[in-house]
Amino acid sequence: MSPKLCVFLPSVAALAVLTGCQSAAIKSNDSESLLIEHLNLSHLSAAARVEITISQGSSVLYKETVQGLADLPYPFPLKALDALDNSQAEVTVMLGAETVLQGQTTLRSGQPNRLLLRDASSAQLSRSYWRGVDMAGRGVPPGVETTLAFDDAGQLTGYAGCNYYSSAYESSARFIEVKPARLTRQICSPPVMYHENRYLQLLTGADYYQIDGEGRLRLYVDGRDKPLLFAPSTAENLKISLNAGQ
After folding, report:
1. Count of domains observed in the chain
2. pTM
3. What's the confidence (pLDDT) of residue 243?
């Protein structure tokens, strides 16, 4: 995770009540921390901008911006919580210029404080079907199908080039987490097997996505400049494609 940038406003200097620049772990039930959580996600991509604001009425007491959160729930440390009793905590998560997650809560002294992030984007992957076009800058080998289908029960399936695969996934707003895939056990030529192994490794590293202006799916992988790129397809076309590969 990138180093945190702390912005201390004038009113905060007088209060000296907060610091979000501590590296020490804080217990999730600590009454001097704000536990930021989401029902489905285990982390937020480093590409996400997370803005944490503490205010009382129209006065902003403290504001901090960080890039991503390595773990959720995330215990954000508070100091001298008595001075913040009944103040409002708000967290906004953005990808580029788009707000994708939001949450707010009223802080209370002497008790655990929790903030649940909720989806602010209507983006969904369920019941969508895709055919691979480019795998993070290396294309797709000629004559090799790479497909991806998301159902509405947290499962994805497809053809990786040599084998059929399936996996569990979680998706909220524009974030995605893909579990390691289960595969059939076919053996193909070395170039095809290399493509398949690389694709599945990248797929499990995807952490957010975008539907571009051409309707294509871009799955962004942490540490990669170029995404996995898919063209839209249909359930019937994928079925025909997958059957042809048997």
Report:
1. 2
2. 0.78
3. 64
